[in-house]
Design brief:
Blueprint: E1 2-7, H1 11-22, E2 28-33, H2 36-45, E3 50-54, H3 62-70, E4 80-84, H4 90-97, E5 101-104, H5 109-123, E6 131-135, E7 140-144, E8 148-154, E9 157-162, E10 166-168, H6 174-178, E11 185-189, E12 192-195, E13 199-203, E14 208-211, E15 217-219, H7 225-232
Parallel strand pairs: 1-2, 1-3, 3-4, 4-5
Antiparallel strand pairs: 6-7, 8-9, 8-12, 9-10, 11-12, 13-14, 14-15
């Protein structure tokens, strides 16, 4: 399921964008935020696939927020559309954030149609149900990435724990295997990657991570704390 976030402090504009977006793609979860704090709260619980950000918000600067997004590896290339009535901000936004497009206020449904068609249909369709390919000697297996809770390297092999089973794969450096996965995965220990969407609790005293759908308590290596901080503290 795709997640779209509209950050706009004018309620009528925000609701109109949401209403129109729903007519283009029914496989989306649409989130609304009227300010930066609400947007950050949404980001803590959801991986967003497309952002629509008002450049000048009442409580903070939307451009500054977008720059923060770009500093996170998982959002380096995620489409960001700026909503603005300030033409002089256009060049600055393109140069500093590499935004996908601008919506200039006031806009009409006709202005939205080509943009929503490209982003909410053409762009999102290839992203549906991302899978990782596991290649064995005599066969191959596709595993939905979002079903993987954590990955462990033990006994010289990769082990994938999903909601329903544990899959033993071949020998491969953990870092190399991480490259096959989405930006949801964080290395938290020399032998573990965790899917951030399943993190339930982090205990910094005992150095363990508790995850949804499993009783396994994943160890948190001291040298890997920074990876968690980059996701949950520095920006959010």
């Amino acid at each position: 399921m795709f997640h779209i976030l509209f950050i706009e402090d004018q309620t009528e504009i925000r609701r109109n964008l949401t209403s129109i977006a729903k007519t283009f793609n029914d496989k989306m979860i649409i989130h609304e935020a009227s300010n930066i704090e609400e947007a950050k709260s949404i980001l803590k619980k959801n991986k967003i696939d497309v952002f629509f950000v008002d450049i000048q918000l009442g409580d903070d600067n939307g451009l500054k927020f977008a720059k923060g997004l770009r500093s996170l590896s998982e959002y380096q290339f995620t489409p960001i559309v700026f909503i603005t009535g300030l033409v002089d901000k256009e060049l600055e936004a393109y140069q500093s954030v590499q935004c996908y497009h601008f919506l200039f206020k006031p806009f009409t449904i006709e202005d939205l149609k080509p943009l929503f068609s490209k982003l909410l249909i053409d762009y999102l369709k290839p992203l549906e149900l991302p899978k990782v390919l596991l290649e064995y000697k005599t066969y191959s297996q596709l595993v939905p990435v979002d079903e993987i809770i954590f990955v462990e390297y033990k006994n010289r092999k990769i082990h994938l724990t999903t909601k329903n089973t544990v899959i033993e794969y071949k020998h491969m450096p953990l870092k190399k295997f991480q490259d096959k996965l989405s930006g949801h995965f964080i290395q938290v220990h020399q032998g573990f990657l965790v899917n951030r969407l399943y993190i339930q609790r982090v205990d910094l005293l005992e150095n363990i991570i508790e995850l949804d759908f499993t009783k396994v308590r994943v160890p948190l290596g001291r040298s890997f704390r920074r990876n968690l901080e980059e996701v949950y503290h520095e920006f959010l």
